[in-house]
Write a sequence for this structure.
């Protein structure tokens, strides 16, 4: 255990020099960062010795849990054997070759071509480039516009952040590719028009997509980007048949369907990939990362179809001029291979399914709390939406930051949940137990009740 003075020194070093992803300067300058020192399974210890159950799963990624000796040994062995080798143009390495072959076994039928990246954002950026390259290669260079959705998050590189559209992400200090990306409505059943059935919501959203294609011109649209479940946008589970219907519209208009499975792939919903097994549709491109190595090392993959490959590979003079120094990194690939081996051997997908269904049922009990408007998600990907009024679904004022109030209280109780405005999101390790779910539910319930009482005492109206 680190001495508290050491913890304070580390926090001050960080506060003095680090620019964190998605920094909020006022709160960071005031409070600094929580310094994590150790992690085993789904449990973390900070620099002052406090212990936490990590229901966030790092950032949707610690699928097999932290601190596994098998992973450490596989990584160390590969470092000693071959710590780096380029995969540019006409070179490869052993673990990269083994991993593309293994992934081709796991992907939906017809998607067996893999381009490695450094993570999810770079996989999305590469998919944008692939859409343009494919459409131009088949003689349709004008098909360069891309349609995505409100409340989506696709990463933080230039094209990926332009594709996404979460409230607050597009700050005025940055520029975005607004000439390329266009957005349609988020498929949120909780926020559908009053009195509308979910099936009617699907029809409304499909019609909006068709109308957008007509407005922009079918000859100008190259791709549609969608997360099967919109993760950081609020764990938005689409209405029944929505994704399949959107896929059909794409197919009939020569628009590539790009499934952003950076979060949902590799077990989060109990499947290797969610598009087909959970939502009954096969996209043209799948972007993945996170669970591919369970966060042990950075790696991502853009997986694309035979249909695309047959077109882009026909030209003998063609060059796909996109790639990254660390693409197919032998150590990252070794980590991914060992991660997949562990998931298969320990039947982690089955555990994610079984314990995930229990997670859904247990968290649903929070719907009884006055502050909770909606509990939603699937299996190991859950969200609690907090509201001021359960009947009208009115939100609390933004400046209260209710999700952060709840996560702070949960942290005091030894539980980490992720605050996103008025939401609290959970995506724990996939090998957790039924007892772990009981702990998460108990502590989160206690936290929400405590924050509710504090708000009412402060004069905030909750009904």
């Amino acid at each position: 255990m680190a001495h508290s003075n050491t913890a304070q020194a580390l926090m001050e070093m960080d506060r003095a020099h680090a620019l964190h992803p998605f920094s909020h300067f006022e709160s960071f300058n005031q409070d600094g960062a929580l310094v994590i020192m150790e992690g085993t399974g789904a449990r973390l210890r900070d620099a002052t010795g406090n212990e936490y159950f990590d229901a966030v799963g790092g950032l949707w990624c610690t699928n097999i849990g932290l601190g596994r000796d098998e992973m450490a040994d596989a990584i160390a062995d590969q470092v000693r054997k071959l710590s780096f080798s380029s995969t540019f143009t006409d070179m490869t390495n052993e673990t990269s070759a083994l991993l593309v072959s293994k992934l081709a076994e796991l992907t939906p039928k017809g998607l067996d071509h893999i381009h490695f990246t450094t993570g999810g954002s770079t996989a999305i950026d590469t998919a944008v480039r692939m859409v343009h390259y494919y459409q131009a290669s088949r003689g349709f260079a004008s098909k360069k516009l891309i349609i995505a959705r409100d409340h989506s998050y696709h990463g933080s590189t230039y094209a990926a952040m332009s594709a996404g559209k979460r409230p607050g992400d597009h700050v005025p200090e940055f520029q975005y590719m607004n000439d390329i990306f266009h957005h349609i409505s988020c498929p949120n059943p909780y926020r559908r028009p009053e009195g509308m059935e979910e099936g009617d919501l699907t029809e409304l959203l499909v019609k909006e997509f068709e109308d957008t294609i007509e407005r922009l011109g079918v000859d100008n649209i190259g791709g549609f980007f969608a997360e099967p479940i919109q993760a950081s946008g609020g764990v938005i589970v689409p209405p029944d048949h929505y994704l399949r219907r959107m896929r059909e519209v794409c197919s009939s208009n020569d628009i590539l369907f790009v499934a952003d499975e950076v979060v949902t792939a590799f077990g989060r919903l109990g499947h290797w990939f969610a598009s087909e097994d959970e939502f009954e549709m096969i996209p043209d491109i799948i972007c993945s990362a996170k669970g591919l190595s369970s966060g042990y090392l950075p790696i991502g993959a853009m997986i694309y179809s035979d249909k695309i490959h047959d077109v882009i590979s026909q030209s003998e003079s063609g060059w796909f001029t996109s790639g990254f120094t660390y693409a197919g990194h032998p150590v990252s690939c070794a980590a991914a291979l060992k991660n997949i081996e562990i998931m298969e051997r320990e039947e982690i997908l089955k555990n994610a399914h079984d314990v995930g269904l229990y997670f859904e049922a247990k968290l649903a009990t929070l719907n009884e709390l006055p502050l909770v408007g909606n509990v939603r998600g699937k299996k190991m990907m859950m969200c609690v939406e907090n509201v001021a009024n359960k009947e009208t679904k009115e939100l609390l004022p933004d400046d209260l930051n209710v999700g952060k109030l709840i996560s702070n209280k949960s942290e005091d109780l030894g539980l980490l949940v992720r605050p996103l405005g008025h939401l609290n999101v959970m995506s724990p390790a996939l090998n957790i137990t039924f007892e772990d779910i009981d702990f998460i539910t108990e502590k989160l319930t206690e936290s929400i009740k405590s924050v509710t009482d504090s708000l009412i005492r402060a004069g905030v109206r909750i009904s």
About this structure: Residues 109 and 282 are 8 Å apart (CA to CA). DSSP finds 15 helices and 15 strands in the chain. The domain at 34-64+347-457 is CATH 3.90.1150.10 (Aspartate Aminotransferase, domain 1). The chain has a mean pLDDT of 97.
